[in-house]
Amino acid sequence: MKLENPKQEHHGKAMSVPGQMLSAGLAGCTADLFTYPLDTVKVWLQVHGSTSSVSNMAVSKSLLAKSLRKSTSSRLQTGTLSETARATMVTASTTRKVPPNIQTIRASSKFASDFLPTAQLQVKKPKKGHSGVTSQSSVVRTIITGVRANGVASLYGGIAAGLQRQIAFSSVRFGIYDSVKDFYMDLFNVKHEGKNIPIRMLAGTTTALVAVGFFQPTEVVKIRMQAQARRPKIDRRYVSTYHAYKHLFQGGRKEAWRGLGANAARLGVVNVSELVTYDVVKEMIIDSNILDDNIYCHFTSAFISGFVTTLVASPFDVIKTRYMNSQQGKYAGVLDCTRKLLMKEGPRALYKGFVPAYLRLGSWNIVMFVSYEQYKRLWITHAEE
User: Alpha-carbon distance 40 to 143, whole Å?
Assistant: First the structure.
């Protein structure tokens, strides 16, 4: 059965709303499975500055614990561990605690000499005028630090919450977009000719606001699960997605829908940028006979859509992530979060994590729209049979 037929038109009217919503939800999950590690790295970079000191201390403790276990195991096998070190090891194993910092370990010469070489106990302190974030500002170093502390699986931290979010958000954002667009065109008596960009923008904004209004808690949980994935398990706030939702709703509706304004603004911009850019570029490519309505056309349109979306939405994304991941009471609101961010870190902070954001959003758009078009065609073909 051939899916790609350049002359076949697959407009929203050819499908039922449930079919569009299902196709969009599946496409969103497909895209997330491919691009989730990039999204996690983006969140790690964006929360730097507000949680860097806690995060770096946690990572240092995790790396230290691994070094201690490795060195101790080697000394036990060779029989070179002193009685003092053996006693200390037993005490540590019963209390399940790691010394609070490396300086404390160095203070005990016997402990240090038996467990770690001197070179392993040295910690580079940030230079004056630089925060701990500076040394880990690059994408590569952020990935290496997180993976060394908690393994490759940390890049998929909170994936269950991420897929739940995609099922909820994508099915609404993309699934009802055509129906809402047709509704506005009939409401304002607009002809179904031309680009009708204002109508498309209105439809994209509407579907984004509906998605955020109903499913905001899934966004909050996803971000918190991603942000904590870089920490050692013993220092994480939540042990599972269920625990995160339970803790979130214990704080009441205000806590569950935290950052609603920031996310609504961000998702409105993202939705309009993604959908309108994709729609317009796709139609221009087809109308100009550059490409037919096939996978190459979808790929090109999605690639351009991803770049435009990242450029426009990055500041909203940084503010949303900072606010949602903050402790309760740290910021008076979204505007206060924005003000403190700009005062402390400057305007460039609004584009923190831009590279992984573009890699993630660009690739996400490509996988999302290409798979969405294919899922729609499968649905139409199945319905016709």
Answer: 9
